[in-house]
Amino acid sequence: MTDASAPAPDGRSFAELDALSTEELRQQAFTLARERHDVRFFWSVLRHLPNADEAAALDGAPNSVGPTLDEAAALWRELTGHGYEESAPLLRAAFIDYLMKH
Fold it and tell me: How far apart are CA 100 and CA 7, in angstroms?
């Protein structure tokens, strides 16, 4: 984590970022990561989503196509800010940390 007393590169303080909604933080962090071509950031976010474990456990067998699509859809909803569930605090912290560092 970064020093909460030091401003982000764009001059915003931790308190200013923390006042934003999780969705606003996600949008800003994702925009910045896309501009920086930061695949590592997106990968770290995917690994912390609630449905990531279930999707990784599927073997891709023909009889698991339905569950595979369902899990992919669930991951997409979470990645786009719909359904963070118990991961919301962790993801929120990751978004703030990313914005504070970059």
Answer: 7
